[in-house]
Amino acid sequence: MSLLTVCITFFVLILGSAVAGKSTYCSKVANYLFPCITYLVEFEPKPAEGCCGGLEQLNKMAKEKKGKKNICQCIEDMAYVMNLPFIASRIQSLHEECHIHVSFPVSVSMNCSR
Asked: Can you say whether residue 84 is alpha, beta or left, with left for phi > 0 and alpha for psi between -120 and 50 degrees?
């Protein structure tokens, strides 16, 4: 089991207990975003299998009431807890790699309170 897999598993467990009332929601966000992490932190040259499908699912969740804000908060929490160094150019190219519009906020310096 790779270190990244262990870290992601740890994150899902921590986030599930840390985000009261949103643990199931954030667990879904983490599961859908998980395949993209190695690409976003520049461990892999291309998004992993499942990344683009996960983005499609997150886009569906983003259409729900407060969906974009909730997804943003989950990703912000995940990046903070795991100290994930998202690479700006990878975030920007993700929609091109997956041929999909990303309809929720993701950035190097997430701030969902704005």
From this structure: beta
Q: Which of 92, 103, 10, 97 is nearest to 57 (CA)?
A: 103
Alpha-carbon distance of 98 to 108, in angstroms, equals 19
- The answer to whether 70 touches 22, Cβ cutoff 8 Å, is yes
How far is Cα 54 from Cα 106, in angstroms, rounded to an integer? 14
Token pair 């190097």: residue: 108
d(CA 92, CA 111): 17
pLDDT tens digit sequence for 51-91: 999 999 999 999 998 888 888 888 888 888 888 788 888 88
- Angle of helix 67-82 relative to helix 23-40, nearest 10 degrees, comes to 60
* Spatial separation of the C-alpha atoms in residues 55 and 42, rounded to whole Å: 18
Let me know the angle formed at the C-alpha of 9 by 23 and 112, rounded to the nearest 5 degrees.
Answer: 45
> How many CB atoms within 10 Å of residue 23?
15
Q: pLDDT higher for 21 or 35?
A: 35
